[in-house]
Amino acid sequence: MKGTWRMPLLLGALSLGGLAAGIFGDGIWDWLCWLGLGIPVAVVARHVWRQWRVARPS
Amino acid sequence: MKASTLRTWYAIHRWTSLICTLNLLVLCLTGLLLIFHDDIDDWLGQGHPEAAMAQAGPTPSVQSLIEVAQAMHVGQVAKSIFFGDEHVVNVRVGPPGEPKLAIGKSVQFNGATGERNNTVPGETFSGFILKLHVNLFLGLPGQLFMGVMGIIFVLSLVSGLILYAPFMRKLAFGLLRFGKTTRVVNADFHNLFGIVVMVWALVVGLTGTFLSFSPLILGLWQKTELQHLIETLPGPKPSRLITVDRAINAAQTAVPGKDIAYVFYPGTEYSTGRHYGVVLRGHTELEKRVFTIAMVDAGNGAVSAVRGMPWYLQVLLLSGPFHFGNYAGLPLQILWALLTIMTAGATVTGFVVWLKRHRRSKVVGGEAELESALSLSGEKT
User: Fold this and answer.
1) How many Å separate Cα B261 from the centre of its chain?
2) Around Cβ B29, how many Cβ atoms within 10 Å?
């Protein structure tokens, strides 16, 4: 159970923090916003890319 | 989770998802374009002209802009004024005695110079896409229908979240079994996309639903708080209105340090018969969405009442940025687009999982379908 939820909880918390951060101001807040929402997107891209590479080694 | 509970959530997830699949794809596609509506407008030559740099000359009075707008539409009178970014001042005129702002025409000015902004006649491409996104060209009923679809979408997300654990218990996060059957590959993608966009999609789905119901929410405010103001601030319409600039000054003196967002003329749907409704807002990204309304007596310029917004209007005002993703520059817009694509991906892959379900389940019943679905998670072989 714990293992199943670790990544989703982490990415969910990052998303929520990112969504909120942007509204508080510019500069550092915008960067926190981009990081918070960017990391989940990057994690998906990494998972898709790596497993695709292994499955189709051409 | 008990097998019967699991079966119930599985059924909820399947049906809520199927109901909003087509709708959601339309929303994702149109939403994707709308994220970049400013750039699309500019690219098609339908954008707002760049605001001319404020000249050294004096800023024209708001009253003078009103007079220009009224002269352009003879027989119509000013109803409301909206003050936007980049000095945009939008004056709305309509027939005398008409409270509804929707019945009327707009004239846009550069408030710094007093020049008229040439807006594009007719409908822009973005405007067309926006209508499809908001109400499927079906007006208010269409908009409320989209709101109901939003609720169903949120149910589909919540049921998906509940099903995540039983389906992923034996699988590593993000496992994609390329080379397996179409159903397995699509289910793996569905689980990955679905769980990663979950929080974002819940926020965008809930804010979108709230925005869909905005006419009802505004109506609630009009029927309660505004109605209360109208009853407690009685008084006939004055024979002569003070200038709108005087009303603005009075409001800004009563509520210092704020910008003017809107002015509603006496006798319109967001004011009383005797008062200018002057709406003020703060400066920061957050404070911009916190409104205060000052009721300014149009006969003598006295500020009769100052009110904040009830929580439901505040939530509505804050729903905007969290639905549009327009509050942290281009990087956020790009992330918003990627998350939209991922949501569409979860929608399509989920649909494929349903399409490729084992047909024998029709004969045996839902039991077998759930079992075959669970087999995707490695529970059965």
Assistant:
1) 18
2) 16
In 3D space, the residue among B19, B91, B63 whose CA is nearest the CA of residue B248 turns out to be: B63
- ipTM score here? 0.95
Instruction: Report DSSP state, residue B234.
Output: -
Tokens of B219: 């109506």
Restricting to B residues 130-189, those with a Cβ less than 8 Å away from any Cβ of A are 164-165, 168-169, 173-176, 178-179
Question: How many residues would you count in chain A?
Answer: 58
CA nearest to B315, candidates B225, B226, B217, B201: B217
**Which DSSP category does B178 fall into?**
T
Q: What is the pLDDT of residues B91-138, one digit of tens each?
A: 999 999 899 998 889 999 998 888 888 776 667 899 999 999 999 999
Cα distances (angstroms) measured from residue A23 to each of A26, B80, B327:
8, 28, 6
What is the H or E stretch that residue B106 is in?
A: strand B105-110
CA B240, distance to chain mean position in Å, is 38
**Distance from the A11 Cα atom to the nearest Cα atom in chain B, whole angstroms:** 7
